Amino acid sequence: MTIPPERRAILEERARSLARRQDAGAQPFGADMLTFSLGRERFAIGSRYVFAVFPLNDLVPLPGATPPVVGLTPWRGDVLTVLDLRRLVGAPPTALDDLSRVIVIGDAHPEFGVLADTLGEILPIDASTLHAPPESRGDPHVLSGLTRDAIHVIDATALLARQADVHSTTDVVVQPPSTSTQ
User: Fold this and answer.
1) Would you say residue 27 has pLDDT above 50?
2) CATH architecture for the domain at 29-169
3) Which residues lie below 8 Å from residue 34, measured CB to CB, with a gap of 6+?
4) 109: β partners
């Protein structure tokens, strides 16, 4: 069943209004986090930053891309950049992984996809109960901490900022060829 673009726009606007941030004064028990596995370890990311999850069917590698970018995949009539977070979070990049799922991440709109082996459940995780991540684990700005159940919590805002920073420093403006003849 194909949804007409007008109806899709209405549905997406309704979803955005329902997913808006809670008031800053509200103190929830814990933020809802989507858990997933990567290698033999479990991770979580704020569900408010998750737009969709889909099975990875096509991945076009990007030779020379800056890690963690590994390629592109088609998604909803567009092209989505795909990241492999194993290096960023300190997981061994050579582990035998399935990496068969893509978690679409963004703030106001989908920005990129993150590879995952399996999806878990949505759990409330209280940031005040997190333990500091081990110092030897990947980028210290990307991991918020570790739960007592050994779930590594990813700081979605730091990950989004990191990728925006990478894009702003690596984007190249290509000048069109000159049309004048000499």
Assistant:
1) no
2) Beta Barrel (2.40)
3) 44, 45, 46, 47, 50, 53, 103, 119, 120, 122
4) none
DSSP class of 108? S
E-assigned strand segments in 28-170: 31-38, 41-46, 50-55, 60-61, 69-75, 78-83, 101-106, 110-116, 118-125, 143-146, 151-154
- pLDDT recorded at residue 90: 74
Q: Domain spans of the chain? A: 29-169
Classify 112 as helix, strand or coil: strand
Q: Structure pTM?
A: 0.73
User: Three-state SS string across 2-35, please?
Assistant: CCCHHHHHHHHHHHHHHCCCCCCCCCCCCEEEEE
Task: List pLDDT tens digits, range 98-112.
Answer: 778 999 999 989 999
The order of strands in the sheet holding 31-38 is 118-125, 31-38, 41-46, 151-154, 143-146
